[in-house]
Amino acid sequence: MDERKRDSMIAYLRHRMEEFGIDPEDLAAVLASEPTAQKAERYRSATGDSWDGQGEMPQWLKQAISAGQSIDHFELAAKTAPAPQPKKHVDWQNDPFAGSPLARSNNR
Residue 41: pLDDT above 80? Predict the structure, then answer.
């Protein structure tokens, strides 16, 4: 789109937003909150370059792969690690081995 058409479209949209009482801040907030408005990253480099896995592979990833790096190295984790489970409470008062050498073991 050339500059003149772009400016004309912006003027038209501003006029229509004014006509319906839509603030630019409101529009920005709605667009920012939509999950489809943001691309889901699937691969990311150490320098912050990212790719969603759709379309042609970007040059930074092509170069890394041709240099011998695995594409898996750049893949973002699809799921987070599970939270550690709390240790089960053991009631040592009823321990049948209490007082024996087995109870004094450091393997508790």
Answer: yes
Q: Specify the higher pLDDT residue, 6 or 91.
A: 6
**How many other C-beta atoms are found inside a 10 Å radius of the C-beta of residue 61?**
18
What is the set of domains in the chain, with CATH numbers?
A: 1-37 (no CATH), 39-77 (4.10.430.10)
Q: Which alpha helices (H) appear in the chain, and where do they start and end?
A: 3-20, 24-33, 59-66
Structure tokens at 73: 């190295």
Distance CA 50, CA 42 (A): 7
Residue 37 confidence (pLDDT) above 60: no
Hey, which residues does 43 pair with through a beta bridge?
A: 51, 75
Taking the CA atoms of 97, 99, 101 and 102 in sequence, report the sign of the dihedral they define: positive
Enclosing H/E stretch for 77: none
pTM of the model: 0.39
